[in-house]
Amino acid sequence: MRKDSRLSRMLHVLVHLHQLQQAVTSDQLALMLHTNPVVVRRTMSLLREQGYVSAVKGHGGGWTLAKPLHEITLLDIHRSLSESSLFTIGLTDEHNNCPIEKAVNLAIDDVLQEAEALVLQRFGEVTLDKLATGYTPR
Protein backbone atom coordinates (compact mmCIF):
# COMPACT_ATOMS: atom_id res chain seq x y z
CA MET A 1 0.00 0.00 0.00
CA ARG A 2 1.33 3.41 -0.95
CA LYS A 3 1.71 6.04 1.75
CA ASP A 4 0.08 9.44 1.36
CA SER A 5 3.03 11.83 1.64
CA ARG A 6 1.18 15.04 0.77
CA LEU A 7 1.39 16.41 4.30
CA SER A 8 5.14 16.00 4.65
CA ARG A 9 5.73 17.22 1.09
CA MET A 10 3.66 20.37 1.59
CA LEU A 11 5.35 21.09 4.91
CA HIS A 12 8.66 20.78 3.05
CA VAL A 13 7.45 23.23 0.40
CA LEU A 14 6.14 25.77 2.92
CA VAL A 15 9.44 25.87 4.81
CA HIS A 16 11.29 26.33 1.50
CA LEU A 17 8.96 29.18 0.52
CA HIS A 18 9.65 30.79 3.88
CA GLN A 19 13.42 30.46 3.50
CA LEU A 20 13.57 31.54 -0.15
CA GLN A 21 11.35 34.60 0.36
CA GLN A 22 10.57 34.78 -3.34
CA ALA A 23 8.04 33.32 -5.72
CA VAL A 24 8.72 29.70 -6.69
CA THR A 25 7.11 28.17 -9.77
CA SER A 26 5.24 24.90 -9.84
CA ASP A 27 7.95 23.57 -12.16
CA GLN A 28 10.65 24.39 -9.61
CA LEU A 29 8.66 22.80 -6.79
CA ALA A 30 7.97 19.73 -8.93
CA LEU A 31 11.71 19.27 -9.53
CA MET A 32 12.35 19.56 -5.81
CA LEU A 33 9.63 17.03 -4.99
CA HIS A 34 10.33 14.70 -7.93
CA THR A 35 6.78 14.95 -9.20
CA ASN A 36 4.71 16.58 -11.92
CA PRO A 37 3.95 20.35 -11.88
CA VAL A 38 0.26 19.55 -12.31
CA VAL A 39 0.33 17.60 -9.03
CA VAL A 40 2.05 20.56 -7.36
CA ARG A 41 -0.53 23.04 -8.67
CA ARG A 42 -3.43 20.84 -7.63
CA THR A 43 -2.08 20.37 -4.11
CA MET A 44 -0.93 23.96 -3.65
CA SER A 45 -4.36 25.19 -4.74
CA LEU A 46 -5.81 23.46 -1.66
CA LEU A 47 -3.48 25.56 0.49
CA ARG A 48 -4.33 28.70 -1.49
CA GLU A 49 -8.05 28.15 -0.84
CA GLN A 50 -7.32 28.31 2.89
CA GLY A 51 -5.16 31.43 2.57
CA TYR A 52 -1.78 29.87 3.42
CA VAL A 53 -0.15 30.50 0.03
CA SER A 54 -0.78 32.75 -2.92
CA ALA A 55 0.12 32.46 -6.58
CA VAL A 56 1.02 35.00 -9.23
CA LYS A 57 0.89 34.07 -12.91
CA GLY A 58 3.35 35.15 -15.55
CA HIS A 59 7.00 36.08 -15.70
CA GLY A 60 8.45 36.33 -12.20
CA GLY A 61 5.37 34.67 -10.77
CA GLY A 62 4.95 31.58 -8.69
CA TRP A 63 3.92 30.47 -5.22
CA THR A 64 4.61 32.49 -2.07
CA LEU A 65 3.52 32.28 1.54
CA ALA A 66 0.40 34.30 2.32
CA LYS A 67 0.82 33.89 6.08
CA PRO A 68 3.90 33.68 8.26
CA LEU A 69 4.85 30.18 9.41
CA HIS A 70 4.16 31.00 13.05
CA GLU A 71 0.47 31.43 12.15
CA ILE A 72 0.15 28.01 10.49
CA THR A 73 -0.06 24.69 12.34
CA LEU A 74 0.44 21.12 11.22
CA LEU A 75 -3.28 20.67 11.80
CA ASP A 76 -4.09 23.55 9.44
CA ILE A 77 -2.17 21.91 6.62
CA HIS A 78 -3.53 18.45 7.39
CA ARG A 79 -7.08 19.78 7.19
CA SER A 80 -6.35 21.79 4.03
CA LEU A 81 -5.26 18.66 2.25
CA SER A 82 -8.62 17.04 3.05
CA GLU A 83 -6.99 13.99 4.50
CA SER A 84 -9.74 11.88 5.94
CA SER A 85 -7.65 9.73 8.25
CA LEU A 86 -4.12 9.64 9.54
CA PHE A 87 -4.02 5.87 9.53
CA THR A 88 -4.28 3.54 6.58
CA ILE A 89 -5.18 0.56 8.71
CA GLY A 90 -8.49 -0.54 7.30
CA LEU A 91 -11.36 -2.20 9.02
CA THR A 92 -12.83 -5.19 7.31
CA ASP A 93 -16.53 -5.33 6.61
CA GLU A 94 -16.58 -8.26 4.23
CA HIS A 95 -18.41 -10.43 6.74
CA ASN A 96 -20.43 -7.85 8.60
CA ASN A 97 -22.80 -10.48 9.97
CA CYS A 98 -20.01 -12.12 11.95
CA PRO A 99 -20.05 -11.10 15.64
CA ILE A 100 -16.29 -11.69 15.95
CA GLU A 101 -15.57 -9.35 13.05
CA LYS A 102 -17.83 -6.73 14.63
CA ALA A 103 -15.95 -7.04 17.95
CA VAL A 104 -12.55 -6.80 16.22
CA ASN A 105 -13.62 -3.76 14.18
CA LEU A 106 -15.01 -2.06 17.28
CA ALA A 107 -11.77 -2.61 19.20
CA ILE A 108 -9.59 -1.41 16.33
CA ASP A 109 -11.83 1.57 15.60
CA ASP A 110 -11.81 2.74 19.23
CA VAL A 111 -8.01 2.58 19.43
CA LEU A 112 -7.54 4.35 16.09
CA GLN A 113 -9.99 7.11 16.98
CA GLU A 114 -8.25 7.70 20.31
CA ALA A 115 -4.80 7.74 18.68
CA GLU A 116 -5.95 10.04 15.88
CA ALA A 117 -7.50 12.50 18.34
CA LEU A 118 -4.21 12.67 20.23
CA VAL A 119 -2.17 13.17 17.06
CA LEU A 120 -4.51 15.89 15.76
CA GLN A 121 -4.40 17.66 19.13
CA ARG A 122 -0.60 17.66 18.96
CA PHE A 123 -0.67 18.81 15.31
CA GLY A 124 -2.65 21.84 16.48
CA GLU A 125 0.14 22.72 18.93
CA VAL A 126 2.99 22.72 16.40
CA THR A 127 3.45 25.81 14.25
CA LEU A 128 5.46 25.58 11.05
CA ASP A 129 8.11 28.02 12.23
CA LYS A 130 9.27 25.17 14.50
CA LEU A 131 10.08 23.16 11.36
CA ALA A 132 12.31 25.93 10.02
CA THR A 133 14.36 26.19 13.24
CA GLY A 134 17.97 25.23 12.74
CA TYR A 135 17.68 25.26 8.96
CA THR A 136 20.26 27.30 7.11
CA PRO A 137 19.50 28.12 3.46
CA ARG A 138 22.16 27.19 0.93
TrEMBL record:
Highest taxon above the source species: Bacteria
Annotated protein name in UniProt: Transcriptional regulator, BadM/Rrf2 family
Cellular component terms per the entry's GO annotation: cytosol
First and last residue of the signal peptide: none
Coiled-coil ranges from the UniProt annotation: none
InterPro entries according to UniProt: Tscrpt_reg_Rrf2, WH-like_DNA-bd_sf, WH_DNA-bd_sf
Classification via SUPFAM superfamilies: Winged helix' DNA-binding domain
Species this protein is from: Rheinheimera pacifica
Entries under Pfam families matching the protein: Rrf2
GO MF entries: DNA-binding transcription factor activity
